[in-house]
Design brief:
Blueprint: H1 11-21, E1 27-31, E2 34-45, E3 59-62, E4 67-71, E5 76-83, E6 87-89, H2 90-104, E7 115-116, E8 142-144
Parallel strand pairs: 3-8
Antiparallel strand pairs: 1-2, 1-7, 2-5, 3-4, 4-5, 5-6
Length: 147
């Protein structure tokens, strides 16, 4: 119930879900095979046209508002805080986990940069959190706001 399905849910649906259960059960997603709790929802965000073409689950750090934006079915929604092993601000998450991608290869398309929906019905378990690695396969995009 608290899993966000980025490909299927709209900004309004995610907002209603957060208002309904977010204070008791955090919204959840997967990143690099690990569970992430999405905290401090700030609502729908407007971004540039170029960034608006990103695939659902794409991540964008908006520096001016210190907000982590995630692409859903019809737009971008923002979160101020995420929880991996411990609570991290959006800026800390970007600096600690995502910044490496921007330094090495700007706008690198990479599968594990995306927030993903719940694991398919398999026996697969999420892995322990490991530092991001750059690879050859590419399916998603991580963006950094130019503002």
């Amino acid at each position: 119930m608290s899993w966000v399905m980025w490909e299927e849910q709209t900004c309004d649906h995610i907002s209603r879900l957060y208002r309904a259960i977010g204070s008791r059960v955090p919204l959840r997603t997967l990143w690099m095979g690990d569970f992430i709790k999405l905290l401090d929802f700030v609502g729908k965000f407007s971004v540039s046209e170029a960034e608006d073409r990103a695939v659902p689950g794409s991540i964008l750090f908006h520096k001016e508002s210190n907000t982590l934006l995630v692409r859903c079915k019809d737009g971008w929604v923002g979160f101020k805080t995420v929880m991996l092993r411990k609570r991290l601000s959006a800026a800390d998450f970007y600096n600690g986990y995502l910044h490496t991608f921007f330094i090495k290869r700007h706008c690198l398309q990479h599968q594990h940069c995306l927030f993903q929906s719940k694991l398919a019905q398999t026996n697969e378990q999420p892995s322990r959190l490991t530092p991001p690695r750059l690879g050859a396969h590419a399916t998603g995009t991580v963006y950094r706001s130019k503002d």
